[in-house]
Amino acid sequence: MNPEDVRIRYNVSVADKRGGDYEHKRWFSSAVARAGFFMTKITIERHAALSGKHIEHYLELGPGPGTWTKLFLERDKASAYDLVDISSEMLGLAQENLSAYSGNVHFFEKNFLEFNEAGPYNFFFSSRALEYFPDKEVLVKKIAALLVSGGEGFVITKTPKYAINKLIGRKTSDFHSGQVDPKALTGLFEAHGCTVVGVYPVTFNFPLFRAAPLNRALFAIFSCLPLNPISQFFSESYAIKFIKR
Ligand SMILES: C[S@@+](CC[C@H](N)C(=O)[O-])C[C@H]1O[C@@H](n2cnc3c(N)ncnc32)[C@H](O)[C@@H]1O
């Protein structure tokens, strides 16, 4: 999707449709949303939050309101955090949400592909933003170029649902059509100077039912294991953990 359309879409949806209360409506307004929050938080804490390790220089693409940034800031207040988002409305929410940590956090209103201000970084994080980039190879190259050798990255992105959608006759909207297969994304990181050390399921959606207990049950069964064909089938999003060589 064209970055200008993404910027306008998020600026409008954050300011108008969601009444400025994006984070609450996205992650806490229903049992299914709260289950999604729980599964994402546990996965980040389990696989990405670098317990006890000092990050130094953290880079996040598409923080939105900073929902997950807080998890890292809570663990490591001494590092410098650079957050890049194309939407001024989203960045405004992040600034409000993270005001308690303002000394360490820097906000950049930019298309990530044009972000050249700072770096290099020791840690890269992004949740649910990759799918907006039409050319994943250009994006992966950019991420790898911004990391120091030995730097780590953790990326969460939506699982493509082409097979299920076809089966139940659901059309994927243009806005969400850029989802990438875990194997293809792993291949891109490997091809551009990174070693993938883990691929994990993150959120689960039991097909056809909007039922938080079923989603949580799938998470309880599969979340400790690497992504496999069964968990991929039920997953709504997955994560890739990598190290820059
Ligand atoms: C679905 S939201 C995810 C927010 C948050 N990370 C989360 O997981 O709840 C996607 C975010 O990515 C940002 N984004 C999309 N394309 C971008 C680009 N080209 N450069 C920078 N940010 C971008 C959007 O503005 C939005 O804030």
TrEMBL record:
SUPFAM superfamilies: S-adenosyl-L-methionine-dependent methyltransferases. CDD domains: AdoMet_MTases. It holds the Pfam family Methyltransf_25. It comes from the Bacteria. Residues 59-151 form the Methyltransferase domain. This is Methyltransferase domain-containing protein. It comes from Candidatus Yonathbacteria bacterium RIFOXYD1_FULL_52_36.
